[in-house]
Design a protein that fits this description.
- There is one protein chain.
- The chain is α/β, with parallel strands linked by helices.
- Helices cover 33% and strands 22% of the residues.
- The protein contains 16 helices and 24 strands.
- The strands form 4 sheets. An 11-stranded mixed beta sheet has the order 9-8-7-10-6-11-12-13-14-15-16, with helices on both faces. It has a 6-stranded mixed beta sheet with strand order 17-18-22-19-20-21, sandwiched between helices.
- Helix 1 (53-58) links the parallel strand 3 and strand 4.
- Helix 9 (292-307) crosses helix 10 and helix 12 (382-392) packs across helix 13 (409-417).
Length: 484
């Protein structure tokens, strides 16, 4: 592809060199550059790509996109100067990979909690309808039924467009993706065309990156601000920020709620550990999900599917066939008669949602024992809050290690314990070894009790000092309850 063809949606301030240079690949990492590639110098959060322009040229870069020209220009290399190389990356990658979102319907899901479940259930539902579908999520990416491993909730713009291009080339008619606040703030989704966007909820998270809740909110809101006029925005009316998200959008706004008048109205009629009986817009349906938070997720899926042109009756039948996503309120029945639940809840609000769902089923007939930790090198402010909420809604609490990363596990545990008063401490154990913490909780549980192991969900590793060690909460629980 010629260099100038990559600027159809945004003209550079200046081009020095041959604008018809043939480009065979696009990179933002100089280590991945091959002869004939275009290197985009992005000012990232960790490093500035402008420092690696010479390294990219040495590896054969035919052209450079940058915000600031290097002092020494190399002969035979074309330089394009742009105001915002972060923004330009997405637009260039979109064009290089054949504008994949012009060839299929892309729906993005953003919010603090529920992104993975909502996006994955939409993917499964539309495959149930018989469509070829793509999924980009925290757990795994899929090109129809082909799994593609994932490292980030939303990949970098080049990886993202390459993946979407493969989906479009494979004949996918729909793609559903989680859209993280980092991805919006870092313009990873620049250049993509969305057919719709879903807002689940907003509570405190990622303040290690965004610094304030207001910045975090603004990042989420920008997704809807940029939504095209022919797209839909579907927002949770019961979240106080639901309508804030769509204040400035050009898209068609629709709402869903369990409490208020809206476009897609739901009610929880019955709830037990095998599932719920729901009412969606006057239609009853039984589902294999538990908790009000899952009722919201399913309601968002219902609304989005209808807005994408599917018939209400067929959507309801499809929803009744779906099962929970890996690591999202996965329940395991012990021969001892207690239930263990694995969930990804790693924010105060998510923890409250899961514990409330458990209490909604138990109705005082059993005890709740919670195992929870907090990730290292992340927002420290939520640690005492998580511990306090877990203690408030649990009969016994075991605080343990999560992914300590480069922090000392005991320091993280101490931060969590700081949120507890003397009464909370009476029912709390602090066990650094996560395996032993899960074992202790399972040994404490009696018939009719529930053990919640929160924080890691689908993850099958613990990250310690930059090294990932295999560790799977579900495997650990199964090993313990099946031990002779």
């Amino acid at each position: 592809m010629k260099l100038i063809e990559l600027f159809k949606t945004g003209t550079p301030d200046e081009i020095i060199g041959n604008r018809d240079t043939e480009i065979t690949g696009v990179d933002i990492d100089s280590r991945q550059v091959e002869p004939g590639h275009l290197f985009v110098a992005v000012r990232g959060t960790q490093t500035d790509g402008h420092q690696y322009i010479d390294a990219a040229i040495q590896k054969g870069a035919a052209a450079i996109v940058c915000e600031e020209l290097p002092k020494d220009l190399q002969p035979g290399v074309t330089y394009a100067v742009v105001k915002d190389s972060e923004e330009a990356t997405g637009r260039i990658a979109t064009l290089f990979y054949g504008d994949p979102t012009a060839r299929m319907e892309l729906v993005g899901v953003t919010g603090t909690n529920g992104k993975t479940t909502t996006a994955t259930l939409l993917y499964r539902l539309f495959r149930y309808f018989g469509y070829k579908v793509g999924l980009i999520s925290t757990v795994c990416n899929y090109i129809d039924d082909e799994p593609v491993p994932t490292e980030h909730t939303t990949p970098d713009p080049i990886t993202l467009n390459r993946l979407l291009g493969r989906m479009a080339d494979a004949g996918c008619q729909y793609a559903f993706m989680e859209v993280s606040s980092h991805a919006i703030a870092q313009k990873r989704i620049s250049g993509l065309r969305f057919a719709g966007g879903i807002f689940t909820n907003l509570t405190r998270d990622h303040l290690d990156y965004h610094k304030t809740v207001q910045n975090y909110l603004r990042a989420k809101k920008k997704f809807f601000d940029d939504m095209p006029a022919n797209a839909f925005s579907l927002v949770n009316l019961d979240d106080k920020n639901g309508m804030v998200m769509v204040q400035n959008t050009r898209s068609h706004v629709h709402t869903y709620s369990l409490r208020s008048l809206c476009d897609f109205k739901g009610r929880v009629l019955e709830s037990h550990f095998e599932g719920m009986l729901l009412d969606f817009n006057g239609h009853e349906l039984a589902v294999h999900f538990i908790g009000r938070f899952n009722a919201y997720n399913l309601l968002a899926v219902f609304g989005a599917a209808v807005l994408l042109g599917q018939k209400v009756e067929e959507v309801l039948i499809g929803l009744s066939t779906l099962h929970p996503v890996a690591g999202r309120f996965e329940s395991i029945r012990s021969p001892k008669g207690f239930t263990a639940i694995v969930d990804y809840a790693h924010t105060p609000d998510a923890l409250v949602n899961v514990l409330n769902a458990i209490h909604g089923v138990l109705e005082g007939r059993g005890h709740v024992i919670t195992v929870v930790g907090a990730g290292g090198n992340r927002d420290k402010g939520k640690r005492p809050m998580m511990a306090k909420e877990a203690a408030r809604l649990s009969d016994r609490l075991v605080i343990t290690s999560d992914n300590p990363r480069f922090e000392e596990p005991q320091d993280i545990i101490n931060d969590m314990l700081a949120g507890l008063n003397a009464e909370d401490m009476q029912k709390t154990l602090a066990i650094t070894d996560r395996r032993e913490a899960i074992r202790a909780a399972c040994m404490l549980a009696q018939r009719g009790d529930v053990v919640l192991v929160a924080g890691k969900g689908h993850e099958d590793y613990q990250e310690v000092k930059g090294v990932k060690h295999h560790f799977d909460d579900k495997e650990e629980i199964l090993s313990m309850i099946n031990a002779k």
